[in-house]
Write a structure and sequence with these properties.
Oligomer: single chain
Shape: extended
Helix content: 55-70%
Distance between the termini: 97 Å
Amino acid sequence: HDDQHSDNEEELSDNEDSDEETDEQRLKRLKAMREEERKRREKEERERQALAMSVERFAIPEVLFRPSDIGLNCGGVVEAIVESINACDSIYRAAMYNNVLLVGGNATIPGYRERVESELRKLAPTNYPVRVYLPNDPVTFAWEGAVEFSQKSGFQKQYSVDRVTWEALKKTGKDQEEIWGDRMYNMNR
C-alpha cells in the first residue's frame, strides 16, 4: 500500500496542488510558478510603452486654453466656444451659453469642465447664464448622438443625397454649397 501511495505522489503534475504533495514536489511547483511569473514580468516590461511625465501632465492640457504657450497665434478652446456662439443669430446666444456640451477625449481631463465653465463665464455677457455639461462618456457621446439622429424616420430623405442625385446636381453646374443650400431651403419650407 505504501508503494502505491509513493507512485501516486510522483504522478502529480508540477502545477497540481494536493494534500498528499511532498515538500520536494511543493518546492518544485512553487519554483516553476515563480519562474513563470518572472518571465511574464520581463515580457510585460519589454512590451511596456510608458512615458514618464512630470510638469507635462499639466502643461499639455494648458495648451488647450493658451495655445500661445507653444507659439500658436490663436485663441484657446474657450475663445473658440465664444466665437462659435457669436457666429449664431443673437436670439440664440443666451440659450447657447446655457447649454455648452463637452465631448471628445479632452473632456476626460480632470477639472476640464470646471475650467471651461469658469473661463467661459468671464467671457460671456454678464446677463447670460453659463452652464457646461459633461456626458457620462464624452468620448463616444457625439457618435452615439449621430447614430440616433441618423436612425430617425425620414433622415435619408431630408438630410442626405444619394450618389446619382449628387452627380446629376453637379452636372447642372451647382457647387457643394448651392446643393446643400437648396436642400436646406426646401426642408424649411
